[in-house]
Design goal:
The protein is mostly helical. It is built from twelve helices and four strands; from the N terminus they run αββαααααααβααααβ. It has one domain.
């Protein structure tokens, strides 16, 4: 038995938790594992919770694809949450997991401001595209904070914590390297999403609104997908299931009239990237590296909305 516990500690230390404590963890007891985040997990998950979670994730995926459904689904989740709280119950974990994603998807269903040849927003520090994404980040962060205050979990569970020194250094290097690569390769890679276009990347005054745009979008999506959804779905779907669920919805969210390329490769790439991002978040215990990479990748998107040149 001592050998089994020791082996279990080594496994958790390597693949999950920096200092796992297996005391009291059995197949019949609920135990909170340090570093996992979210509510206490059981080794045996109720099948009913899993079925409900799968159904909700399926509806969220539908809302991600069909934009008019997004606000309706978000409103239904809010009604569910309010009804549960009025009955004196705690925040339903499944609702907590998907509500931030549903709200930012609902916001994204509205028409985003787009610059025209007659309107030059490119170097405006408070350009409408940047403020639009800042509002999106505010909606997602407010939703998460409200759920945390309601007892769904903690921000630390979701990866909003001070990263280790190694992760912090890797995050800075990733942004410094990936940022310029994304800007100067944006026209090529962006063609998969938006069709053929050219970017006016030499407008250095655009860097401030571009950074605001990219940081806001990265915070909104990483906190909602790799944070709330990945962590708070674990009790119902397990570690792999929760990570796969957020990755699938993340992939379907990158569809719609804004995109002018073939959908299948984009969805597959986003699902793969979202799943890998979830693994990184769990292994590092922080969203820092993902925020850096995501923000760097989103820099050319601002130039697309505000500084685009005719192809």
């Amino acid at each position: 038995m001592a050998y089994g516990v020791s082996a279990g500690r080594r496994f958790l230390r390597a693949f999950c938790c920096p200092h796992p404590d297996l005391t009291g963890v059995t197949t019949r007891s609920a135990a909170r594992l340090p570093g996992m985040g979210g509510p206490a997990m059981t080794m045996r998950r109720p099948r009913g919770d899993a079925l409900v979670a799968i159904a909700v994730v399926g509806l969220l995926s539908l809302a991600a694809i069909v934009h008019p459904v997004r606000p309706i689904f978000a409103l239904a989740l809010l009604v569910w949450l309010v009804a549960a709280r009025r009955r004196g119950g705690r925040v339903p974990p499944i609702v907590a997991a998907v509500l931030p994603v549903a709200l930012i998807l609902a916001w994204g269903a509205l028409q985003q401001p787009v610059a025209t040849p007659a309107v030059d927003w490119c170097a405006d520090p408070l350009s409408p595209p940047s403020l639009w994404r800042l509002a999106e980040a505010g909606i997602g962060l407010l939703a998460v904070l409200t759920l945390v205050i309601g007892g769904a979990g903690s921000l630390r569970d979701l990866g909003l914590r001070r990263p280790s020194r190694r992760v912090a250094i890797a995050s800075v290097l990733a942004f410094v390297v990936a940022g310029p690569m994304a800007l100067f390769g944006g026209s090529i890679l962006g063609g998969l999403f938006f069709g053929q276009f050219e970017l006016d990347v030499w407008r250095f005054g655009a860097l401030v609104p571009a950074l605001l745009f990219a940081a806001s979008n990265a915070l909104a999506e990483e906190l909602a997908y790799r944070g709330a959804m990945r962590v708070w779905l674990v009790p119902a779907l397990g570690i792999v299931g929760a990570n796969l669920a957020q990755a699938v919805v993340f992939g379907f969210a990158h569809t719609g009239t804004d995109f002018d390329g073939p959908m299948a490769p984009v969805i597959v790439a986003m699902v793969a990237g979202g799943f890998i991002g979830g693994v990184v978040a769990r292994r590092t215990g922080s969203l820092a590296f993902l925020l850096a990479v995501h923000a760097a990748a989103d820099l050319p998107i601002y130039y697309y909305w505000a500084c685009r040149l005719p192809a």
